Amino acid sequence: MASSFSDTVLRLLLSCAEAIEDGDLKSADGFLHSILILAGESCYSDQRLVKYFADALVRRAYGLHPACSSFTFLVDPAAYYHSICYLINGVIENVIHDALMGIRRFHLIDFSIPYYYSFGNSVVRTLPTFSGEPLPVRVSYILPPFLKKYVKFSRQMEFLTRDAKEVNVKLEDELKVVYGNSLAEVDECEIDLKRRRDDEMVVVYYKFKLEKLVRDAKAMERELVRLKEINPTIVIMLDFYSNHAHSNFLTCFKDSFQYSLKTFEYYWEELDHYIDGKYGWECNREVGEGNNIIRRHPTLTEWQHLFSRAGFSRIPLNHKKDNLSVEDERWLEIMGEEEECLILGNEGCPMFFLSAWKPKVEDGHFNSISTNHKFGQGFDPNPAPLQPRQPFLEGLKLNRLAALAEIHDISKYLSCKYKLSLTLTLASKVNNMNETISDPNKKHVFFIQDNYCYTNDMTSYYFMLDYSKDMISGRPLIIEKAFESRDGYHFQPSLSKVEDYRDSTLQRYNIDGAVAICLQNRHTSDEVYIVEFYWPPTESEISKSLALRIFDDLKHMKTTFVTVKVQVPEIKLQEAISSIPTSANTAMPLKIAENAHIEQIVETKRNKQRKSWSKVWVDFDKFEEHGKQVAKCKHCPKVFTGSSKSGTTHLNNHSKVCPGKKKPNQESQLILPVDTNDRSSNV
Asked: What segment(s) does the record annotate as region SAW (predicted)?
């Protein structure tokens, strides 16, 4: 992004943000108009970056759910670091070198694993190059549970063995990998984290890990207590830099835009490398999952306070030393020193800080965080909240972006509920969000809004790209039938049986069933949207039931900016749902991709009122095995009795302590409020 363009966009975005803070939505709408015109004249990657931050402003103005990271928009600086971490290995190498006296072996504990295979960036490469007899090294990885299906021990051992030869060390044990989100979650019987001998150096690497834990005061306290128990020789910390402690939205917005601006330029050039395989793709998702892109971070002083109370002191890092330099300053450079830490950034923009810690000489105990300290309630990364504004009816751009943001949240909620990996959003009369089509012959032309599509995996992302090509080539699509339908939706039980789709790219993605739902803007009546939900081949009755339930759920959601464009009476829809026949007494789960299934959606008996449903079943699959009802945990291999006579207390107890379940300090999915009046509970 050229400097003049980025400066102009940032100025307009900040002006729009100020207008929203002041409640001047008329001016904000005008600034948005200029922003979107400017974005429309730029390259594709710049358009997406600008639209993302414009979307964030509209969400703040109207109190909509915060935007979640999406595979279609990769900007998180943590993932940026994973590809270039080898550039600062020399800095860490010098810290370790200065503490080598009397050391004859190493234990390296890391929370990230290499997935960008072009560089030798395993944790072993942070060691100095030794002469003489190779020193023994053992490596332990503590990884997020979602990576379990991707880690290949043989491949990782290949990386470690190669890098060990480069620095003249030998791997003492087989690679040890355990799954958890912190040291505190790791069972001592799973991995030996403590020093085995007095001449062993233990190094713990925290790369963009502690900022997540610090949001939960108890989780952070448990981690520091465990860290003190392990008593490592050195702790390396790399995280987001912040030079202010206040939560002013405009400051956070400016910082976040500059973060994303610097990383996204590099990202787009190397995008093919980042999404080369499901492993790298999900690593990118993990670093930003659930985060609002506009956020603040703890300051160096706040980190110093926490580590000091845990019994650690800083190891000074001096950027003036000749040997403290990065290997390629085009992407990352040492910008200076602050509070004995190194500030890293790019082109004058500070982005990260690197710090090193060691146990204090005195063997003190961790001083529990007091309730009156600001970390006592956990660190809130979000800027100070804003009282939601009432919709500005004359605000064309505000209403347009708000409608698309609301559609995206609806799509994600329903896709997560029914375990769908793909939902596409299309808008009529809108091309690149900055103009209105005036030609009456084109009033029903639809454009895909890729910033607002839900793509849960790499396959879905590529489908979205191919779908756009199909639209450009003029292939007939189901959006036309949905738009013309009086019911407000069009259900296609099997796309493979439709002549127009037999040779299309749909088939290679294991997609067959689909429902397209037509929505309209409540405040701009001539703007229409189509939301398309897709799923793999399945029994026609189940597929039809799924389509109707998606439509029924969407129709009953509390929304502010969009509504279903339907002319059929409500009673007709309810009759359609209740009259769906079932092929068996029990519902059949529908598999999507790997190990995923749609929730049971067929009633156990025709016209039988659905029983109340316990929330515990969100975490368990219930099925019959050897003639008995069993409940299998979705997060670990454990199986329990699922008989109704046994109740759900034992399942609730396991759910609270399950080691594979996502912990509170991790980011969670957005949940939209649903109007449940006069409706039976969801299965």
From this structure: 287-358
Q: Side-chain half-sphere of 216: how many Cα atoms within 13 Å?
A: 14
Check residue 69 and report its DSSP letter.
P
Asked if residue 626 has pLDDT above 60, the reply is yes
Q: Assess whether pLDDT exceeds 70 at residue 408.
A: yes
Within 8 A by CB and 6+ apart from 353, the residues are: 238, 239, 240, 241, 300, 338, 341, 342, 343, 344
Helix or strand run (H / E) with residue 227: helix 217-230
Query: In order of start, what are the domains of the chain with their CATH numbers?
Result: 1-67 (no CATH), 77-377 (3.40.50.150), 396-608 (3.30.450.80), 614-683 (no CATH)
Closest C-alpha among 251, 296, 252, 250 to residue 20: 250
pLDDT of residue 601: 39
What type of residue is 366? F
Residue 83 has pLDDT above 70, yes or no: no
Length, in residues, of the chain: 683
Whether the pLDDT of residue 663 is over 60: the answer is no
Q: Which residues pair with 490 in a beta bridge?
A: 516
Give tens-digit pLDDT for 559-615. 999 999 866 554 454 555 444 444 333 333 333 333 333 333 333 333 433 444 577
* pLDDT, tens digit, 9 for 90 and up, residues 104-129: 999 999 988 765 554 456 889 889 99
Query: How many other C-beta atoms lie within 10 A of the C-beta of residue 23?
Result: 15
**Reduced to 3 states, what is the DSSP secondary structure of residue 643?**
coil
Helices 44-62/249-269 angle, 10° precision: 150
Q: How far apart are CA 15 and CA 567, in angstroms?
A: 42
Instruction: Quickly list DSSP for 109-157.
Output: EES-----TTS--SGGGGSPPP-SSPEEEEEEEEE-GGGGGT--HHHHH
Distances (CA, A) of 133 to 159, 165, 346, 527: 21, 12, 39, 73
Say how far residue 230 (Cα) sits from the centre of its chain.
31
**592: Cβ contacts below 8 Å, ≥ 6 apart:** 419, 420, 421, 535, 536, 598
Which sign, positive or negative, has the C-alpha torsion 278, 280, 285, 286?
A: positive
The region of weakest confidence among 63-72, 204-213, 279-288, 451-460 is 279-288
Backbone angles phi, psi at 81, to 5 degrees: -65, -40
| 8 Å CB contact between 456 and 415 | yes
- Please state, in angstroms and rounded to a whole number, the distance separating the CA atoms of residues 383 and 360: 35
pTM exceeds 0.85 for this model? no
Which helix (H) or strand (E) is 60 found in, with range? helix 44-62
CA R_g for the chain: 27
What tens digit of pLDDT does each residue of 316-363 get?
987 655 444 555 556 678 888 899 999 988 777 888 899 999 998 765
Q: Do 418 and 546 meet the contact criterion of CB atoms below 8 Å apart?
A: yes
Q: Determine the Cα–Cα distance for residues 420 and 533; give it in Å rounded to an integer.
A: 8
Helix (H) or strand (E) holding 89: helix 89-97
Q: Helices 3-21 and 249-269 sit at what angle, rounded to 10 degrees?
A: 150
